[in-house]
Amino acid sequence: MSSELDKLRTRIDEADNELLRTLAERLKFVVQIGKLKQQEGLEARDEKRRSEVLSSRISTGENLGISGEFVRKLFEAILNHAETLEKK
After folding, report:
1. CA max distance for the chain
2. DSSP per position, 31-51
3. Rounded Cα–Cα distance for residues 54 and 82 (Å)
4. Which of 7, 38, 64, 73 has the most other CB atoms within 10 Å of its CB?
5. How many whole angstroms separate alpha carbon 24 and alpha carbon 83?
6. Which of 24, 79, 32 has its CA nearest to residue 51?
7. Which residues of 51-76 are buried (b: 16+ CB within 10 A; e: fewer)?
8. What is the reported pTM?
9. pLDDT of the chain along its 88 residues, tens only?
């Protein structure tokens, strides 16, 4: 394997780790929001907010050259998991 390939794979590994750190931070906020929603008697799922988040993230992703469909699927998975966490 070439050293250039190794370097690129190392950069991918670093980017993946950064993505996971950022996701973990996001999920900490989700848990805090879930607690607040429970205290205020609100439902975990907020369709308006969900729609706003999806639309915004798809637009941002497309502006960065990422497929809108991929971003939609990714954020639907993130939002579904967040909703599960908020219910705990």
Report:
1. 57
2. HHHHHHHHHTT--S--HHHHH
3. 13
4. 38
5. 15
6. 79
7. eebbeebbeebeeeeeeeeebeeebe
8. 0.88
9. 689 999 999 999 999 999 999 999 999 999 999 999 999 999 989 999 999 999 999 999 999 999 999 999 999 999 999 999 988 7
Domains by residue range for the chain, with CATH: 3-86 (1.20.59.10)
Encoded tokens for 17: 């780790």
- At 73, list the tokens: 């699927």
Token digits for 58? 């798809």
Under a CB-based contact definition with an 8 Å cutoff, are residues 40 and 86 in contact? no
HSE of 73 in the Cβ direction (CA atoms, 13 Å)? 4
